[in-house]
Design a protein that fits this description.
It is built from eight helices and 13 strands. It has 275 residues and is an alpha+beta fold. It has a single domain, classed as Aminopeptidase (3-Layer(aba) Sandwich), CATH 3.40.630. It starts with 6 loop residues before the first strand and ends with a strand.
């Protein structure tokens, strides 16, 4: 197993957070996006610190995009939180287990990892930053020989009926096969099959899906059975599952870009990106 190497693209670098200060910067970004921008409800300690944090942060790896447009400072403008199955000693469980029965994923065989807390600063929500963030995930998957990725993706709002079109579309077209199918916990389960296929405006649904969910679908993602309302985050969540072998091929097919310069060779090469 190799080591995750940082990658530079223009004024931005993608790498794992290297110190507590960088993790706190990622948490501060999460706070700005989730609580100040999207209307989540912070705990008092979060408000006091201006950071989104929980007990899982200590066990996770934190993927960060660092912008250095201002040569005098480095700013975390994108982040993903990653938890592998061999990191569960400190938590005992994946974050998703609070919402879904993920036992089929844990017994699937091979290395698995959970993706979460994804966000990008509003001023940097562009193709370049997103490509770099996806590139980091692809590199991480390769370094750790991951077989399966999973996590939750969100729609704004806590009324599943208002999301009848996209939830029904996802259930009818992208439901995971049983051996890879998380199911929302009984007391949190919201039916996704709300309207019949003939009533779905496919074009409208595909154009209005959140960018992160679109990105996952381009990688061949499946969804689990049942949505979950998260009142703290003011979202309706779905379970996402991506097989790494599918991701590798579709990464290359759908996300062509010039590979960022390597910090070792500083020579451009070609690659494609892997949300």
């Amino acid at each position: 197993m190799g080591a995750f190497e940082s990658v530079i693209a223009g004024n931005q670098t993608i790498r794992l957070a290297a110190c507590e200060q960088e993790i706190e910067a990622a948490q501060a970004l999460r706070y700005r996006v989730f609580y100040e921008e999207m209307g989540a409800h912070p705990l008092p300690a979060m408000t006091a610190s201006g950071r989104d944090f929980d007990a899982f942060d200590e066990a996770c790896d934190h993927l960060v995009v660092i912008d250095q447009s201002d040569k005098n400072k480095s700013v975390v403008v994108g982040t993903y939180r990653i938890l592998r199955d061999d990191q569960l000693g400190k938590t005992g469980e994946f974050y998703s287990a609070n919402q879904y029965d993920i036992s089929v994923l844990k017994t699937h065989g091979g290395a698995i990892m959970e993706l979460g807390r994804s966000c990008v600063d509003a001023a940097f929500r562009n193709r370049h930053t997103m490509q770099l963030l996806w590139r980091g995930i692809a590199e991480y998957v390769a370094v750790h020989n991951i077989d399966l990725m999973f996590g939750c993706a969100s729609f704004n709002g806590i009324d599943p009926k208002a999301l009848a079109q996209p939830l029904s579309y996802l259930y009818q077209n992208h439901l995971a096969p049983k051996p890879l199918q998380p199911r929302a916990l009984k007391d949190r389960y919201c039916n996704m099959a709300l309207i019949p296929p003939e009533e779905i405006d496919r074009k409208q649904v595909l154009s209005s899906l959140p960018p992160l969910i679109k990105g996952y679908l381009r990688l061949g993602a499946f969804v689990g059975d049942g949505a979950v309302v998260d009142h703290q985050f003011n979202t309706t969540d779905i379970s996402i599952v991506v097989k790494a072998d599918l991701m590798t091929g579709r990464y290359a097919k759908h996300y062509a870009l010039d590979r960022p310069h390597s910090p070792k060779t500083d020579r451009p090469s070609r690659l494609r990106r892997a949300s």
